[in-house]
Every structure is written in structure tokens, then in C-alpha cells.
User: What shape does this take?
Amino acid sequence: MSGVLAGRKALVTGAGRGIGEAIALAFAREGADVVLVSRTIGQLNEVKEKIEALGRRAVAIPTDMGDHVGVLDLADKALDALGGMDIVVSNAAFGGGLVHMLDISPEQWRHTQAANVEGPLLLLKELAPHFFEKGSGNIIFVSSIRGTNGAPGTGAYGASKAALNSVTKTLACEWGPMGVRVNAICPGPVDTQMIAEAFTGNRKLYDYFGKLAPLKRWTQAEDCAGPAVFLASDAARAITGHLLIVDGGLTAILQDAFPPPADL
Assistant: This one.
């Protein structure tokens, strides 16, 4: 590795597995120390051990991003733990399953927005004075192509990601003069544990969806780590307010041109 993040201090939410874990490990390989955040301390400790094996420091702070009191506490603990902060990757999210708009309860809608939008914003508001004082900072939202396109059954989740896409551009405008860059990665479907569980018992359907994109393979969690390292590095010093799509080309095609096989 090139050490492009040497000496940097990063916070990654949803770092216990999947995309968050991949990004946290990639940051550590590039020389960063990392605060690891998720709801599950067992998963965080496993990632912490991996980072420490790389010779970097890791601090595990279990937090539910939908718990706003806990988020305020997280900001203070993270700054104290590493003595400052350079990079925040807001990756944790509540999916909510497949629920059509007419069936979404007010409680489910509010919970999704609280975890996916309100919690991350509250965290950044608490960290903002630190970034402004030192005149630099780097924010990366892990959003989704669900925030740029519609999909049946994902209304609450998609709305939260669309909000994050807008927040990315707004914060880039508002915080740019203070030296803070704000960007988002928008993955398509990623072959994580959640996907594996969703397709349990139907390998043919799993393979079909994995080959929908022009690259003809599932996007892996590690495929989001490289873009995150780039956006966090000085190589992207003139990039802010950008939505970087990581979907194997899925949103570049007209999906109705590829109907599923009849036996699916």
C-alpha cells in the first residue's frame, strides 16, 4: 500500500461487517487510525483485531445511529479516543426490508430517516466545530443508487438515500469555505451477508441478479473501499459534492431490456 492516509484519523460507522468493515480495513492499510462504530460490539472487536494486526490503532464504540443521545456521546468519545478527527465515513443504515409505500407505517418511516439521515447529520454537526477550527475535514456518505432511482418496496430506504445525496451537495457548498470536503459513494447491490441471506435456497436467482450489470458480476464490499480511499486522500483534494456510483454499470443500462428467464 502507498500510505496515502498516513497519520489520518478516521471514523467509520457500520464498521462491523460488509462495506464499513472493508473501508475501515482499507483505511488502516493506508496508514489511518480508525474509530469503529456499529451496534454490535462483537463484530467491532473482530475488525479491531484485524486493524491492530496491521499495526494501526482502532477504537470500538458501539452506537445505534438511530439513538440520537448515543450519537452525541459518540462524537465526544471519538474525538477523545484519537485526539482529533480527519475523516468521517457515514455508512451505517437501516434497510427495513421490502415494504410498499402504501404499507409503510409512520413509525417505520421515522425510524429509517432517524437512522439513515438524522443520526449522521447530528454526528457531523457535533464534529463540525472541530473541522472548522483546523480548517480541514473529509466527509464520505455511503449512499445508494436507490437514492437516484425508484425501486418497488424500498420507498423509505430510497427516500433516506435521496436525502443523503442532497445533503452531500448542500454540505459541500456550505462547508467548502471552511476546508471540508463532502462526497458520497452510491453502491448498487453489494454481495454482503444480507444479500446471501435474501437469496438463500435460490442460487439461480442469485446468479441472475449478479450478472445484470455490464460487468457481469456482483459488486463486492471491497469494491467500495478503493473509491473511499481515493475520496479521503489528497488525490481527490478538488473533489467535493460528488456522487460516485459504484454499481458495475447497473444504472447505465435499461434493465427492462433484460427480462429474467422464464424459469425464475
